[in-house]
Input
Amino acid sequence: MDKLIISLMMLSIAASANAFSDPTRPLMSAPKSAPTEKVAVEKKQPLTAIFTKGKKRFAVIEEKIYRKGDIYRNSQIIRITDDKVILRTAQGTRRLTLIQKIKK
Output
């Protein structure tokens, strides 16, 4: 008789435990999010590196190597310094600057 009572108590405890939901259990489907505004994302910085070989300087722009006098997007590279590239465009001059300077 005692075993029967204990068994019934165990079953009732197990049944009541199933009634609680696990707060860490993932949702079956993700809730729909509110519509978001489209935000213009800035283009990746095109100038990624500047290096020298002897007295010549080179710039890595959009994964290509350029030197003074080369044409990049209809603009002529007129100067390369330690941290920037100066371009001559139809509208005037434009400067591309390195974001992070690497110590020599």
